[in-house]
Specification:
The chain is mainly beta. It has one helix and six strands; from the N terminus they run ββββββα. It has a four-stranded antiparallel β-sheet. It has a two-stranded antiparallel sheet with strand order 3-4. Strand 3 and strand 4 form a beta hairpin. The longest helix is centred in the last third of the chain and has 5 residues.
Length: 112
């Protein structure tokens, strides 16, 4: 197979990816469950110049480079408190308590 732009997959083509958010909003508390995810790029779908970069990509069962799929889950709780008084600095304060990275699957391979 020739190593030219006509046969090599595009170097800048990304796998499927996204972010999904499920939010439960009430008058004061808000709960938010979110997920970020990305699909796998197999060795055959990597651009030819990327296939030899073992320091960037993980290795599959055959020892070939590939970009594994991954996802993570995050949970965030928020409460809004309204303030009133003679010397108020702000009309409300927003308290957030994020718990990020509840589940991270294969993300460590992408960062290697």
């Amino acid at each position: 197979m020739a190593l030219d732009s006509e046969t090599s997959p595009s170097r800048h083509a990304v796998p499927w990816f996204g972010k999904s958010v499920l939010a439960l909003k009430n008058d004061k508390p808000t709960l938010e469950l979110s997920s970020f995810y990305s699909g796998e790029v197999s060795h055959e779908n990597l651009a030819f110049e990327e296939q030899t970069k073992t320091f960037v990509y993980g290795k599959d069962a055959n020892g070939n480079t590939y970009a594994p799929s991954w996802y993570n889950l995050n949970l965030r709780a928020m409460v809004s408190i309204r303030i009133s008084g003679k010397y108020q600095v702000a009309s409300k304060i927003l308290l957030k308590s994020p718990t990020e990275g509840i589940a991270q699957v294969s993300q460590q391979l992408v960062a290697m």
